Amino acid sequence: MISPRFLVTSLLLLCLTVLCAWLWPLPQRMLGQDSAVLLYRDGTAAHVFLSGDQKWRIPATRSDVDPDYLRALLALEDERFRWHMGVDPIAVGRAVTSNIARGRVVSGASTLTMQLARMLEPRPRVLSSKAIEATRALQLEIRLGKEAILEQYLSYLPFGRNVEGIEAASFWYFGHSAKDLSRAEVATLLAVPQDPNRRFPSPANEVRLTAARQTILESLEAAGVYAPSSDPLPPVPARIQPIPRLAPHAALWMHRQLPGLARLRSTLDGGLQRRVEKALERVRAERAAEGIHNVAVVVVDHKTAELRALAGNFDFWDREHGGQILSFDEPRSPGSTLKPFVYAAAIDRGIALPGFLVSDAPVHFGSYSPENYDGTWSGMVSLEESLSRSLNVPFIHLLQQVGVEPFLGMLRKGGAKHLNSNPGYYGLSLVAGGVELTPLELAGMYAALAEDGHYRPLRWLANSEEVEGMPVFSPGAAWLTRRALRLRDRPDFPTRATVAMPAGIHWKTGTSFGNRDAWAVGSGERYTVVVWLGNLDNRSSSHLIGSEVAAPLLFDLLDGLDDRVRSEDPAPAELVAVEVCALSGHPPGAACGERRTVLARLEKVPTESCPFHKNVEIDDRGFRVHPACRQGPSRIESRVAWPATVKAWLGSRFSSEAEVPPWAIGCEAPAGRPNIRSPSPGMVLSLIPGMPAEDQELPLESVGGDAPFTWFVDGKMWGQSNGERLWWTPVVGSHQIMVMDGGGGSATVGIEVRKE
Fold first, then answer.
1. Is the backbone peptide bond immediately before 334 cis, with ω within 30 degrees of 0?
2. Which of 395, 573, 663, 755 is paired with 386 by a 20 to 30 Å CA distance?
3. How far is CA 377 from CA 362, 369, 391, 513, 710, in A?
């Protein structure tokens, strides 16, 4: 009968053992960082990183390893693994007997747990080390449990050089994961850890590894793990396979997002990723000869907002040109690629319709004098044509009406995170590239355009929760914008493209000031692609033109990514047919003759009638009169009043439209001429010291007269409006400010600007 004292003593010893196991720190190596693995969306490995201690060590669970290997491992190394507490008494007794009988050590009786302890804390193979390993094994059994011990064993098992763990070894030896292993591969992976340096796959070790594999297979057959087979075995691996190091830029970026996650299953598609990289390789030499050394490509499935491919540069190892910089996450000037969003914003605010006739003529906004890329002017063009031709002045006027800050708010809703938050930091030049966005941010915005204006944050982690997102602009505005971007007869259709442009896509190119950035962005049936080319050190190149170098690559990618059969893009229900003036595209006024119907958002149709057609009274001599100065027969005719800024640039397309004639001698414009409300005559403005002048803008506002209104400061045109307020950046000195309306009436005030 067991005495109570014995029971109490045993219980105390047990408690002391458990306490010591918990107080004694686990081996330091267990706290190290394993190799992180990036997986493609189908679960295959894309990229493996070195561990924190510079090992190829991929953590593995039971589900990651072929069940045959696990059965073979336990049968060969530790058949009573499930029953002992780190030390197997039966194996110890058998080893002692065997070693005494032979007079030398022929068996060590190490369990898997003891082997793990030795892997974590290597020591000389002496008896004292065995005692420490046994103690550590007991601690590991108490602290971790069987499943965790097995997984740690599978992760730290040595396979020669700096390869550790069954998963890394399987990739290095056979080029695939340990999920599915042949019997020959199982035997090989069991043979190498027994003597890693002498059995590591190499020509010098081939004979030894072959013999060891055969011996192990015979042992496994004897143990009943495998049935005897006479099938010939393949040769043992003579050399290692390259471990997956694909998509390096994408892998590095994703690893930085979640540095503590060992396995990252991404949304990247391996086939699309390789297609993108091959397309870049085809053009790399030609671009380098043109002084273009950096590139970024982003491919998004806009139906799911998932990233499908990411390329951050031509060559990750090109240190001379910053090859390891992740170009797809670098803010760059987007050139003209934001114009479609100004276009959509104006439609949504009821400011414009695609057919609106707008001015494209020289204009000055203080010190800012925008020009078109080709240096020419068109006089009057439709807004849709302005977008198709990427004209600057019409979109600067349009942004002025939309408002810089409201537009920036829309960009932030669309995922722009690199914008300066200081109010007034950006001006009207942002629509021509005076702002910085990353290719990833631009991809999210154009994906929203393809999805009827609904923005969702881009997803790159597979099985991550889908974010609802938010509407950035309406389906109607998105559809009208896509229609404009589908036009083929446009300046940014690349004449040098080596592939035909895919059918059914909409696209936009951009070139930043000074030829430092070339962009092409487009969407097909399913994919949105962003292409950026440039130099990360900001060197310019005359070849950095979006339509010349970026668009052909965009078309090549879209042609290969999208299905040939494309569904139609029907207009959304919110767009209805409305009647507009055939010339101006505005709602028709009383003077408009010819009319046509266009699609518009019914609740956002602009309310201002055609500003160009006017019913004027004309005498027999062809001069303009009014009842107070009429001296003979007269008639009412519909004429066109062009803005003063475009008369010098009118093209032949408008030559058939009769302009408003000058006033007859003795006639003056009636009392409806404009009057300047702000600034007031004789005003003295004192600038606040320490505050930038652009933060102290002066409003220019008039009442009366006929739109459009053209403002001049000291004889130079400042801007044009249809009645809305403009803003002028004050300059110290005396100034004459004049406004001229569409009918030729004008008003002038003098002001003075002083320093405080």
1. no
2. 573
3. 8, 13, 9, 18, 18
Average pLDDT over residues 507-513: 91
Report the alpha-carbon distance of residue 67 to residue 173 in Å, rounded.
19
DSSP at 243: P
Average pLDDT over residues 569-585: 90
For domain 28-222, which CATH number applies: 1.10.3810.10, 2.60.40.420, 1.10.3470.10, 2.60.40.1080?
1.10.3810.10
Q: Is the pLDDT of residue 590 over 80?
A: yes
Q: What angle do CA 595, 600, 603 make, to 5 degrees?
A: 115
3-state secondary structure of 634: strand
Q: What is the percent of the chain where pLDDT is above 90? A: 41
Neighbouring residues of 391: CB distance < 8 A, sequence distance ≥ 6:
360, 372, 378, 381
- Predicted pLDDT at 7: 54
Which tokens is 420 given? 């300066």
Q: How far apart are CA 366 and CA 340, in angstroms?
A: 25
Quick: pLDDT tens for 344-402.
Answer: 999 999 999 999 988 877 776 655 667 766 667 777 888 998 898 888 888 988 998 89
Least confident of 82-86, 541-545, 613-617: 82-86
Distance in angstroms (rounded) separating the CA atoms of residues 300 and 455 = 13
pLDDT exceeds 80 at position 427: yes
pLDDT given for residue 663 in this prediction: 80
- The neighbouring-strand residues paired with 518 are 511, 533
Q: Where are the domains of the chain?
A: 28-222, 294-561, 573-603, 612-668, 675-755
Cα 583 to Cα 653: distance, rounded to the nearest angstrom: 11
Here the tokens at position 364 are 């000055």
63-95 burial, b if ≥16 CB within 10 A, otherwise e?
ebbbebbebbbbbbbbeebeebebbbeebbeeb
Mean per-residue pLDDT, 535-564:
88
The tens digit of pLDDT for each residue in 630-669 reads 888 888 888 887 776 666 555 444 444 567 788 888 787 6
Cβ atoms of 748 and 711 closer than 8 Å: no
CA-based nearest residue to 737, from 669, 654, 677: 677
User: In which band, very low, low, confident or very high, does the pLDDT at 490 lie, cut at 50, 70 and 90?
Assistant: low
Encoded tokens for 252: 């590095």
Q: Give, as one character, the DSSP assignment of residue 550.
A: I
CA angle 598, 603, 606 (to 5 degrees): 60
User: Tokens at residue 28, please?
Assistant: 């330091």
Class of domain 294-561: alpha beta
What lies within 8 Å, CB to CB, of 606 at 6+ separation is 350, 351, 352, 353, 356, 586, 587
The reply to whether 675-755 shares the fold of 28-222 is no
Which stretches does DSSP call E strand in 707-756?
A: 709-713, 716-721, 726-728, 733-740, 746-755
* Token reading at 715: 């004889």
**Beta strands 56-57; 45-48: pairing state:** unpaired
**b (16+ CB within 10 A) / e for 136-150:** bbbbbbbebeeeebb
Q: Dihedral angle at the C-alpha atoms of 169, 175, 179, 184, nearest 10 degrees?
A: -80
CA atoms of 324 and 326, how far apart (whole Å): 6
Which of 432, 424, 347, 447 minimizes the C-alpha distance to 395? 432
- Count of all residues that appear for the chain in the document: 756
Q: What is the per-residue pLDDT for 359?
A: 80
- For 598, residues 6+ apart whose C-beta sits below 8 A from its C-beta are 353, 354, 355, 577, 578, 580, 585
Q: How far apart are CA 503 and CA 499, in angstroms?
A: 12
**Is 70 exceeded by the pLDDT of residue 470?**
yes
